[in-house]
Amino acid sequence: MTGDSHSTFVIKYLPLIGRAGVIHSILHLSGAEYKNEFVAKDEIAAHREKFPFGHVPVLIEPFLMDRPLNLHYLAEKYNLFGSTPQETALIKSVATNIYLELADNLFSKDAAAKRSEFESEVLPRFTLCHERWLDQNGNNGHYFGDRLTYADLVLVNWLRVMSKMGITIDESSSLKKVEKKLSELPEWRGKYEYYHPFNSLEEEKASKGEEEEVEKEEEDDEEGEVGEDEERRKRRRA
């Protein structure tokens, strides 16, 4: 992946990877600097006006961006789209189809009732469709050419979600080849599992809370020392 790695981003989201999974993956793999700014569910519900369209995740650099704009922006910035407008349109189409076929079925209000239908009808149809796309590209672990694109990242994100939900894809499938190839990228720097969509960031949140508490204590100590110095000066003048 290439692109501007000097930008500093802020991801505003709940203390988990979740729906920000692809955002985290792009930023980490590109070597970009970013930090997490955690928000609570009740804060989102009470102050939806703080977010562009009333929900999260939101990406800041330095302006607020909501999904899917933030994903498309990052894909453009870090060269995960095509080399031509036509190829970019195809990459977006593949990624959109993955989201619509899987997210809408896995997380709809009646998803539990439709689980059997999803596994027996929707998933096989989805798998055949996307295996066809991958096979047309030579079954080399990528949707387009011989490089990582936004479509690859979106697919692997949802394969990991399904795996955690107990929904498996045959290991011989070309879809699994994309996952294997992506997981072996050295740019993960040993953090592939850390960026799993179901991973919680509560420890990071707690760690940040402790750091802020330490900083506050240090500031209080400094203020106390200043106050003591001032008191000593007053006594000397008296």
Give start-end ranges of low-pLDDT stretches.
none
Q: Please trace the helix and strand order, writing H or E for each element.
A: EHEHEEHHHHHH
Biggest sheet record = 4 strands, mixed
Order of strands across the main sheet: 2-1-3-4
- Find the structural class using helix and strand composition: alpha+beta
3D structure, described in words:
With 238 residues, the protein is of the alpha+beta class. It is built from eight helices and four strands, in the order βαβαββαααααα. It has a four-stranded mixed sheet, covered by helices on one side. Helix 1 runs parallel beside helix 3, helix 4 packs antiparallel against helix 5 and helix 4 packs parallel to helix 6. The longest helix has 36 residues. The model has no long low-confidence stretch (mean pLDDT 86).
Keywords for this structure?
8 helices, alpha+beta, 4 strands
Brief synopsis:
By secondary structure, the protein is of the alpha+beta class. It is built from eight helices and four strands; from the N terminus they run E-H-E-H-E-E-H-H-H-H-H-H.
